[in-house]
Design the sequence.
């Protein structure tokens, strides 16, 4: 099929004795937003570096835009945009100069770079800062500038490694909005995140990664349907009561339950109905909440751990 | 390129390259050919030019003033004492004429060394220029050669400034001196290429300080620069012959004074070219290992 842009089979990356990526398989389809969801150290960044053609796979097969990531690295990278986890902007240059330098790497003419720079700075809402140095920009602005810079060569695939980590909520929403617009325009997105809301917002399809392996794959909705119940009941008890409460809840035989450090999570099709039974059993939670299942629950189910610890 | 719809009020603008959904479908399924290494190296070089635009005046002053002080203090101050005892050991030329081409050689060595160390380390660890560049279509070897091109430019700039000073003080005695500029560049490259190849592998700056303290300073003092090699103890002379600065200083002096012979020039040039070639080979490897992890 011609619209498979990236194909990975048994993709593996080892650093000495440590296996960062352990034989993963996936296909990336043109136009989709594909996410790697997992905690820190799951192998997401190593996977992104291999996809960015700057890290030779130790083993397995990886084809990007029909080429080999190391042999054809330069030709593939000419058609990629990369937003790394840590900004690599040149703080001693202005906003505009950062785009100029980067555009030059791709052999673009000064006139074309100038034209694209105007459009891109408009797109990421940095037009007023065009002549300013990068150093004093806020974290959100720097991230948006990095996104603008990654688009200077009009890439077909945009690789984003934790695009909103470290940003405040408002700055995250601005970044999400820009990425969503890019996707609408047909740019294929690959992103990593350990935020489930980010994955739900942006990703058409995602894989859950843990310890270098893919634990599950699907659309956010599919994953939730497959690995969780429609609703979740969250109960918080006084610390000394949690243990006995957990035992009593087990006696009510819920579909599934998890005890975390500060909460008891009960997975049920109908959360309110189960809450009623909890009350009838004489239990008095300090706090109770019925909510829809999220990817966080999927992750907890698959790995036994929470995403952000 | 598309014409964008103008943004209206708070309405964020459309992303650029808008009409391209259709265009994208028409893109070739095969990858485009990649330009040659020279073209890609020049692209990397231009990045350094953009940054250098901000600092070039101060950098030239600070790198050329030092050697001019040396020339004044050693060449004319100390030289007036030296010349009272006759100039036979200097090849029959006044001390300033003897020492000026060696100071040029030291300047070229130091320009090569310093440009091959701290900016290279910084490009990995501080401003991360290499890290940004490797995500573009440049390959590690292009990044290395592009940076080396910039270092060569800096070596040539500093040497040219110093040559003007030498000429103004009538310290040049031969038409061979027109070759002093390429000779200085070759000498600087013989330091810059291997040193950059090594620096890119470093995790801390400590080893670079050792190179300056125990490498470049002894070289500057004992390579037949301020006094003829014949004044060194006999066992030390072969050590000096093995160092690149001795070859560079001897080559520069023979061109400046006019005592150059085909045989000696071939040995000096061959040595410096060989060292540069080893550096270029090693750099392409070490940059690749460092930037493709």
Sequence:
């Amino acid at each position: 099929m011609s619209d498979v842009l990236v194909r990975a089979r048994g993709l593996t990356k080892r650093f000495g004795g440590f296996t960062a990526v352990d034989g993963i398989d996936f296909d990336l389809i043109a136009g989709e937003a594909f996410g790697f969801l997992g905690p820190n150290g799951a192998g997401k960044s190593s996977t992104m570096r291999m996809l960015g053609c700057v890290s030779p796979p130790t083993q397995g097969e990886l084809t990007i835009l029909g080429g080999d990531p190391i042999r054809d690295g330069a030709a593939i990278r000419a058609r990629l945009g990369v937003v790394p986890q840590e900004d690599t902007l040149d703080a001693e240059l202005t906003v505009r100069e950062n785009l100029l330098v980067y555009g030059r790497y791709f052999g673009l003419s000064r006139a074309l770079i100038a034209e694209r720079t105007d459009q891109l700075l408009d797109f990421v809402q940095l037009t007023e800062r065009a002549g300013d140095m990068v150093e004093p920009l806020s974290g959100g602005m720097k991230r948006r500038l990095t996104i603008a810079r990654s688009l200077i060569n009009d890439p077909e695939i945009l690789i984003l490694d934790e695009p909103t980590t470290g940003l405040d909520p408002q700055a995250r929403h601005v970044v999400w909005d820009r990425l969503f617009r890019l996707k609408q325009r047909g740019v294929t997105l690959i992103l990593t995140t350990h935020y489930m809301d980010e994955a739900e917002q942006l990703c058409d399809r995602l894989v859950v990664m843990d310890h270098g392996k893919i634990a599950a794959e699907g659309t956010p909705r599919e994953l939730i349907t497959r690995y969780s119940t429609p609703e979740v009941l969250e109960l918080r008890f006084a610390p000394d009561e949690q243990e006995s409460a957990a035992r009593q809840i087990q006696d009510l035989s819920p579909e599934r339950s998890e005890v975390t450090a500060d909460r008891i999570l009960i997975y049920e099709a109908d959360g309110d109905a189960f809450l009623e039974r909890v009350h009838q059993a004489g239990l008095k939670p300090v706090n109770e909440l019925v909510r829809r299942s999220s990817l966080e629950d999927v992750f907890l189910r698959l790995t036994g751990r929470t995403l952000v610890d | 390129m598309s014409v964008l719809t103008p943004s209206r009020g708070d309405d964020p603008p459309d992303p650029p390259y808008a009409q391209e959904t259709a265009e994208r479908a028409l893109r070739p399924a095969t990858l485009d050919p990649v330009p040659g290494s020279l073209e890609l190296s020049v692209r990397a070089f231009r990045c350094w030019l953009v940054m250098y635009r901000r600092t070039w005046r101060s950098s030239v002053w600070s790198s050329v003033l030092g050697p001019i002080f040396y020339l004044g203090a050693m060449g004319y101050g100390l030289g007036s004492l030296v010349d009272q005892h006759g100039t036979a050991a200097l090849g029959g030329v006044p001390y300033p004429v003897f020492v000026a081409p060696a100071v040029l050689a030291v300047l070229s060595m130091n320009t090569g060394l310093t440009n091959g160390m701290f900016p290279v380390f910084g490009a990995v660890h501080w401003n991360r220029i290499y890290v940004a560049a490797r995500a573009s279509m440049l390959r590690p070897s292009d990044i290395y050669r592009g940076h080396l091109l910039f270092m060569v430019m800096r070596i040539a700039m500093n040497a040219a400034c110093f040559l003007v000073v030498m000429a103004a003080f009538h310290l040049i005695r031969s038409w061979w001196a027109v070759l002093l500029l390429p000779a200085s560049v070759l000498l600087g490259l013989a330091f810059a290429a291997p040193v950059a190849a090594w620096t890119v592998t470093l995790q801390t700056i400590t080893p670079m300080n050792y190179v300056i303290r125990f490498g470049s300073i002894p070289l500057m003092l004992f390579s037949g620069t301020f006094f003829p090699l014949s004044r060194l103890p006999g066992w030390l002379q072969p050590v000096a012959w093995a160092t690149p600065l001795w070859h560079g200083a001897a080559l520069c002096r023979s061109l400046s004074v006019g005592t150059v012979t085909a045989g000696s020039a071939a040995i000096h040039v061959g040595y410096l070219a060989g060292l540069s070639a080893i550096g270029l080979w090693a750099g392409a490897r070490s940059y690749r290992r460092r930037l493709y992890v």
Notes: Residues 45-79+92-291 of chain B form one domain. Chain B has a mean pLDDT of 89.
